[in-house]
């Protein structure tokens, strides 16, 4: 294992590693155990051996980080050749890697079709959180979110979602020896948040399958308590998240009246605050998790008054909760400003006095545009800046 390297400001590395496109071969990454079993049987693995083979291959891929069948030394040579003939073990390609002054790492990840998403690793006290994307762009249009200005291009596949964890582990040099899963406390990549690009609950099955793989005890083996899924409030999928994934839940709440939330998080017009809270009340019990995180972005003169803080506390009464205050991360052309520090503190204070934890999220990786809500594909950003340049040229 290597510790994150010394901070390099604005370091942009173009990594020339090519991912095998597969030549029509099937990628084993991202398949559930049942799917893996099926494809092995389809390609000639005797049914009686299938379960054992699934276990062996699974461990090589997810516990040891092996991408080459030839390295699977507990499989017979002929069987390895058979696997090679039909399958690949492929993760998305990292086309750029930026390291922030504060050690935050941002990966620009290219997926099939030439699309790009971003994945961010945030180190903290020898551990770290990986922020992963679930879609290219987003169908929703939250007015403060950079991703929201980009149309949905497509959903990520389970392979592309779990692949983001695998490439971060590659970069951190964190593949443990077989049979020796690291303890959560000693991992560099110890937590996952689905807070990158996209609305995870609009890509439910793929997110579920990828998180099941991340939680599988014979592989990446992250506890469900160390995985947090953030949603803008897709109410019908919330109970399903508890039942089928069982991870921690974060809600992009951001406002205390329907009038303001309609403007900030337009999905509120479909499922309003009352309906959302109703679904949330059932979550802790259904998922056996302690608390729900309410994310609240602090926007100057929009949602940051003392009255808002008091209303917020009243609304969530009865729900085991933590309120995460996010100072707004500005992006070029963003229509809002970050609330003043004094205002954020006063807001936090009211919540704290009402008995809730109210941490203020420290913006990380701002110098490399890696902070929450700033993610957007590089191509899209480039397109935008070209458009801006043209507009400026015309104006000049
Ligand atoms: N689509 C999901 C997850 C991705 S966004 C969701 O909306 O929850 C992750 C978090 O970042 C959300 O709480 C989102 O509201 C917040 N966010 C988006 N843009 C932001 C910005 N510019 N500054 C601060 N937080 C932002
Ligand atoms: Fe999509 Fe989340 Fe951004 Fe809203 S905040 S536009 S749901 S990514």
Structure description:
With 396 residues, the protein is of the alpha/beta class. It folds into two domains: 26-88, DNA polymerase, domain 1 (Orthogonal Bundle); 95-395, Aldolase class I (TIM Barrel). Helices cover 34% and strands 17% of the residues. It has eleven helices and 14 strands. It has helices at 33-42, 47-63, 77-86, 158-172, 204-215, 238-244, 258-264, 273-287, 306-315, 341-353, 378-395; strands spanning 11-13, 26-27, 87-88, 93-99, 105-111, 115-124, 127-131, 135-136, 154-155, 191-194, 227-231, 248-252, 292-298, 321-327. The strands form three sheets. The chain has a ten-stranded mixed beta sheet. Helix 1 crosses helix 2 and helix 4 runs parallel beside helix 5. It is elongated and about 70 Å long. It starts with 10 loop residues before the first strand and ends with a helix. 45% of the residues are buried. The model is unreliable at 1-20 (pLDDT under 50). Iron/sulfur cluster (SF4) binds at residues 138, 140-142, 145, 147-148, 198-199, 232, 252.
